[in-house]
Amino acid sequence: MDSLRYPIGQFIAIENPTEEQREQFFESIAEIPNKLRQAIDGLEVGQLSNSYRTGGWSLQQIVHHLADAEMNAYIRFKRGLTEEQPLAGTFREDLWAELNDYEDTPVETSILLLEALHIRFLKLLVKLKPSDFARSVTSPTHGTMTLEIAIQRFSLHAQHHIAQINSLRNTMGW
């Protein structure tokens, strides 16, 4: 079950990444919308309604969740840059996934939203100084973390969900 839920493994932070490692995180963030688009390419509406595991979200819910989660993460990150150790907001992702927009909105809408959001986020990230990444936010679920760790979580979160989609595609032979 854990391999289905966490197909690329659990998050392990890199406490003091090199500039090269940070650039790799940026590159992975830049690739997320395209990798997500590839993961769902050619799937029909009926296929998108399938869950990647028993009790898990449908592929459509995953796509919409990524848009919501990454918008929230972007705001938390900007608050971390502009406020002193802000308490990062959270959201009831389980309940958001049950709202009608997750069912009634085409996945393409959320992918377009992610594309625009990632353009903005990357414009912000590439001009930050190393000291900016030492700033911190406090997450209700993860405790206090630097923006260095937050960006790593951001990168891994999307990769994790894209791997869930690809895992189901492979299992189903799609």
From TrEMBL:
<dbReference type="Pfam" id="PF12867">
    <property type="entry name" value="DinB_2"/>
</dbReference>
<protein>
    <submittedName>
        <fullName>Metal-dependent hydrolase</fullName>
    </submittedName>
</protein>
<feature type="domain" description="DinB-like">
    <location>
        <begin position="33"/>
        <end position="165"/>
    </location>
</feature>
<dbReference type="InterPro" id="IPR024775">
    <property type="entry name" value="DinB-like"/>
</dbReference>
<keyword id="KW-0378">Hydrolase</keyword>
<dbReference type="InterPro" id="IPR034660">
    <property type="entry name" value="DinB/YfiT-like"/>
</dbReference>
<dbReference type="GO" id="GO:0016787">
    <property type="term" value="F:hydrolase activity"/>
</dbReference>
